Amino acid sequence: MSATSPTAATTTETAERTRALLTAADPGRRRADRAMTVLIYGAFALAVVPLVSLLWTVVLRGAERFDADFLLTSMRGVFGGMDMGGAYHAAVGTLMITLTATVISVPIGLLVAIYLVEYGRGALARATTFFVDVMTGIPSIVAGLFAFALFSIFLGPGAKLGIIAAVALSVLMIPVVVRSCEEMLKLVPNELREASYALGVPKWLTIVRVVLRTSVAGITTGVLLAVARVIGETAPILITAGVSDSINFNPFDGRMMTLPVYIFSQYRQGPVPCQEGALDCLVDINFDRAWAAALLLIVIVMLLNLIGRLVTRWFSPKLR
Hints:
Blueprint (H helix, E strand, L loop, with lengths): L4 H19 L3 H36 L5 H5 L15 H32 L3 H14 L3 H16 L6 H25 L3 H9 L4 H12 L1 H15 L4 H6 L18 H11 L15 H31 L5
């Protein structure tokens, strides 16, 4: 017993030393960990602080005129520093043009994505992918000029309609829809397709009943992100739809106002030169309307993102 006791004690001491070496923190690693923690929190602050500042400024400045009168009235018959007028016509134009652009771009983008994932092989698929990548980087003003020049051939120079603006926005939306839908379709397991084929289901029916149903949540989220991408565009709308103070629900007849163009036009007008002592004239009324319209646009984009979250939760595949 006495001969084996030193050996056992040595083994225990060795194990304790090894455990201490493994659990002890190296001072250099500890400093590096603290430095990386500071850098990560600093990067987070650099990203969040400007966003919070922007939201706080817009809410603080825009809440002054963000009321029912502003949301339900247009600028028709409003001039000077009158304490009247709202952005109802701009909100209607934004929703109508964006909805029309969505109707145009979503079917095209979804069909192109299905082709690239399910059928695309060879040079045509590579060329399609290349042109989609190129279209992703097109400046918005170029899309507006393209739509304006295209419709000028048929309607004459100077034509400004809501449908022209919708076509310009669809040029910007299509590559985003293609990319998002393509990635969602790739996430569908091939086992689901093979199981459907094994049951004798045609490929087109497998795509409709299996692939699209499985990826509908991600596709919807991608479409809403594409809508949020174009809903704040100003330059192509200003070129194609112009400026209007009246309410217009028909994108095929007359000019239409959108919230980004409304914000630009109000801010461009600047302070109102009111006469001294005039009680019915507000000097900063144009700025107040611009801030309120900016707040309304942010609310619409936030609602779209909220709808996307809800759709993802409702339609995502449930694990059993």
